[in-house]
Write a structure and sequence with these properties.
The chain is α+β, with helices and mostly antiparallel strands and about 550 residues long. Helices cover about 50% and strands about 15% of the residues. The protein folds into 3 domains: about 10-180, 2-Layer Sandwich (Formiminotransferase-cyclodeaminase, Chain B, domain 1), CATH 3.30.990; about 185-350, Alpha-Beta Plaits, CATH 3.30.70; about 360-560, Formiminotetrahydrofolate cyclodeaminase monomer, up-and-down helical bundle (Four Helix Bundle (Hemerythrin (Met), subunit A)), CATH 1.20.120.680.
């Protein structure tokens, strides 16, 4: 039997209530009863009368939390009284599971079946499996399942081809039906238009969505094929679903899209294509909004795309790239966009225990100066290395927009990206070094009564010590790699910043030397170990090469300052 305790899946149920916050909280309280899940986002919409909830956890816990939430929604919501702009068919309209890490799509499908079975038979809510979990081709597309909505499902469910996957073929009179599926990460994205016309918004939506629109002849009649079915003209963008609607809350029409594969059609491509088609139809895009959470990569790629269009360096901080993305996409037009709340990785980071690198500079210093042995020299060495890479990156960015060097922006942008990557890895190693030390302390704390306990303790101490050698070894190598970038910035970078590159070299040298000391002290009892011996030899070589490079760069910096 597979162990999914360390696997993570995301669940994004959509509940047919977007106004009554007491009801919404009652539903999300059920999710938070399961300790092994984290509630990441609750996004209610008044006009759609719908709330999108996002939570993550190990698959077993997520299934339990989803079941409790669906059960509570059944108790509190009555679809006979529901009205809203968004198509819907149930109190819990849809409940997708998305594999995030440590689990395959196939295994996630098995968990969708488990949840579907419980909802269908224990709660008496008919369940349809969709997307990757679909039991038939006509059930893969959620829009086909939902067609007819709650009001039409009483008759639809009686048709043999629409027999539920789980539950009786009778609509639940208050909770309707529910779709449970497995899908890739989906971005729910709305683009704002300077019109109140749903028809015109739909025209743009049909231009861009993959399904497109029904083909018409010169007289405006729908063209049909030999079987009498309507012929469809595909839209411009793959993996995009979309419709136009009017949102009374904002007083505008929107193009409402689901980007079902952000690698095929990224956020910025969807936005720019909407702009092009809106302009062609005499409309104007004024901004956009993200519903629920979005992966960091989607925002970063958008920011980099718009920076490249400006011929600006993309090797700037994540914060700056996100700011460019938000402004370029107009994500803050309708309400403020908070990256900490809307970006899934930032939301998880906010919920996790604070790390050393999340502290202020003074907080980090005070933590180091405390009575605790960690953070120690290894973490400080990694931080020195990160500062060295950061200074080289700064010089690259300053060079990319130096007056008179406009034609070289991309050259220096590439150098800045290299520096950012090195800096991020070295920042990660700040905490990795402390984590390795903590593992050693945990190993020493294991019981040592019986012979088997002593053997297990000895093995754990050795494994933890080897880790405490490998982490500073990795830091040493990354810091050494940064010398190539630093030297290049001294040679060809903005001459006004040559001293900054020189200080970067001093930081990198400190990182290498500091890590060398950590490797040596941790390896005292394992010098002849098969994993440790080559590390010691390579560390000796890197230290010697670092001294040569440092002396060379020092002379170059002084030479350029004469």
């Amino acid at each position: 039997m597979k162990d999914f305790r360390n696997a993570i899946i995301e669940c994004v149920p959509n509940f047919s209530e977007g106004v009554n916050m007491d009801i919404i909280k009652s539903i999300t309280d059920e999710i938070e009863k399961i300790k092994e899940v984290k509630l990441l986002d609750v996004d209610p919409g008044k006009a759609t009368n719908r709330t999108v909830v996002t939570f993550v956890g190990n698959p077993h816990a997520v299934v339990d939390a989803a079941f409790l939430a669906i059960k509570k929604a059944q108790e509190l919501l009555d679809m006979r009284n529901h009205k809203g702009e968004h198509p819907r068919m149930g109190a819990t309209d849809v409940c997708p599971l998305i594999p995030i890490s440590g689990i395959s799509m196939e295994d996630t499908i098995a968990f969708a079946h488990e949840l579907g079975k419980r909802v269908g038979w224990e709660l008496g809510i008919p369940v349809y499996l969709y997307e990757y979990a679909a039991s038939a081709p006509n059930r893969k597309n959620l829009a086909e399942i939902r067609s007819g909505e709650f009001e039409g499902f009483g008759a639809k469910i009686k048709q043999p081809e629409w027999k539920p996957d789980y539950g009786h073929a009778t609509i639940n009179e208050t909770a309707g039906v529910t779709a449970i599926g497995v899908r890739d990460f989906l971005i729910a994205y709305n683009v704002n238009l300077n019109t109140t016309s749903t028809r015109r918004a739909n025209a743009v939506a049909f231009d861009i969505r993959e399904k497109g629109r029904q083909k018409k002849d010169a007289n405006g009649k729908i063209v049909k094929d030999a079987n009498g079915d309507a012929v469809w003209e595909p839209g411009l963008l793959k993996s995009v679903k979309g419709i136009g609607w009017y949102i009374e809350e904002y007083g505008i029409a929107q193009i409402s899209m689901n980007l079902t594969n952000m690698h095929i059609t990224p956020l910025h491509v969807a936005f720019d294509t909407c702009c092009e088609r809106a302009t062609a139809r005499g409309l104007r895009v004024t901004g956009s909004e993200l519903v629920g959470l979005v992966p960091l990569d989607a925002i970063l790629e958008a920011g980099k795309y718009f920076l490249r269009k400006q011929q600006r360096s993309i090797g700037v901080s994540e914060e700056e790239i996100i700011k460019i993305a938000v402004k370029s996409l107009g994500l803050d037009e309708l309400y403020p966009f908070d990256p900490k709340k809307k970006i899934i990785e930032y939301r998880l980071r906010e919920l996790d225990q604070k790390k050393l690198v999340d502290k202020t500079a003074s907080g980090f210093a005070y933590e180091t100066a405390s009575e605790s042995p960690a953070p120690g020299g290894g973490s400080i060495s990694a931080y020195c290395g990160a500062l060295g890479a950061a200074l080289a990156t700064m010089v690259a960015n300053l060079s990319s927009h130096k007056k008179g060097w406009d034609s070289r922006w991309e050259e220096f942008s590439n150098y800045a990206v290299t520096g950012q990557d090195l800096m991020k890895e070295l920042l990660h190693l700040v905490d990795a070094d402390t984590d390795a030390f903590n593992q050693i302390m945990a190993a020493f704390g294991l019981p040592k009564g019986s012979d088997s306990e002593k053997a297990a303790r000895k093995a754990a101490i050795e494994a933890a010590t080897i880790l405490a050698i490998k982490v500073p070894y990795t830091t040493l190598k990354r810091a050494y790699e940064s010398f190539e970038l630093i030297k290049k910035m001294v040679e060809i970078g903005n001459p006004n910043s040559v001293s900054d590159a020189g200080v970067g070299a001093l930081c990198a040298r400190t990182a290498v030397r500091g890590c060398y000391l950590n490797i040596k002290i941790n390896a005292q009892d394992l010098k002849d170990h098969e994993e440790v011996k080559p590390i010691l030899a390579d560390a000796d070589y890197i230290l010697a090469e670092t001294e040569k490079l440092d002396a060379e760069i020092w002379e170059m910096v002084l030479g350029k300052m004469k």
